[in-house]
Prior knowledge:
It is built from 11 helices and 12 strands. The protein is an alpha/beta fold. A 6-stranded parallel sheet has the order 2-1-3-4-5-11, sandwiched between helices. Strands 7-6-8-9-10-12 form a 6-stranded mixed sheet, with helices on both faces. The longest helix is centred in the last third of the chain and has 20 residues, at 272-291. The radius of gyration is 24 Å and the shape is elongated.
Amino acid sequence: MSVSRVINNHPSVKHSTRAKVMKAIARIGYSPNDAARMLKGRRGRTIGLVVPDLSDFFSSCFHAVQEVAIRHDYQTVVVATGRSVAVEEQQLESIQNRVAGLLIVTSGSDGTRLKAIQDSGIPVVALDRPVAGLQADAVLVENREGAEQGVRHLIEHGHKKIACVGFDSGSYTVRERIEGYKLAMRNAGLDPILLTQVNSLEAMQALAQRWSGAKDRPTAAFALKRISSVYLIQALHLHKLRVPEDIAVVGFDDFELAEVLGTPLTVVRQTPTGMARAAAELLFKKIANLQEGMAETQTAKMLFPTNLIIRRSCGCPARE
Length: 320
C-alpha cells in the first residue's frame, strides 16, 4: 500500500517513507505496468482526446496533444464521435475509467456525463468549443472576431452583396462565425445573405449554377469552414465564375493547398496546434494539482486570436 501511494503521489505519505520507497524502486529497477493498472480498473498514465472526426484540423490537434503527452510521459487515447452526441456519450463511457484527464471537442452534448466524469476526479478541458452546462477550463478561438475581420475586408473592397456560405450552423464555432459575418454586414448597413445549409459539393455546385445565370448574384462570398471553401472554389470553377473577378472569396481556416490554387485563397487563419498544445498543458497542470491535493476554485478560459492572410481571391493584388 505504501509503494502504491508513493507511485501515485498520494499526499498522505510521509517524507521519510517516500524516500525509502524511492530508494528501493531505484535499486530493483521497478516501473509501474500501466496496462495492469488499467485492467484493475485504475487509471494509468493516459489522457483522453475526444474529437468530432479526424479531419485535418482535428488531426493537427491530436498530434499537438500527443506531443505534450509524450513530454509528460503519458499516452493519448483518441476517439472520434462522427459528430454524434449519442456516439460521444458511448465513447466517454468506454474511456472514462482508463484516463487520468480528458480533452474534449464536444459534438453538442448537454454536459451531464462530463459533469459526472469531472465529479469523479477526472479533470476535463474543453477544446475549440465550450460544453453546455459544464464549468470547465476551455481553450477557444476568436471565431466571431475573425469572421468579422474577413467580411469587413470584402466590404473594404467595395462589395455590398456578400453571401455567407456553408453548413453546420448548430455547432458553436460556426454559429460564432455567422454572428461575426452578420455584425460586419450590419455595421456597414448591408443586408445579410445567409446560405448556411450548403453541406455538400453537389449543393455548392447547384448554388454556383444559379449564380452563373443570375444578374443580381452576390459579388463576394464568405465561406464558413475549410471544406466549404474547397467546395466553393470547385463549384465556381465548374460554372466558369472567375475568382475574384466575378465573385471574390474569403474563407475561414487555412489549409495547405490554399496558397497554390489557381487563385490563392484569402483566409482567416486559426492555429489548431497552438490551441491544442495550450489545452494539453492546461490539462496536465490540473492533473498535477489533483495529485498534490490542491483544490481548484476557478476555471480558466483561453482565447486564441485569428489572422487574416491576404492572398488574391479577395481582390488584392498578388504579393511578391
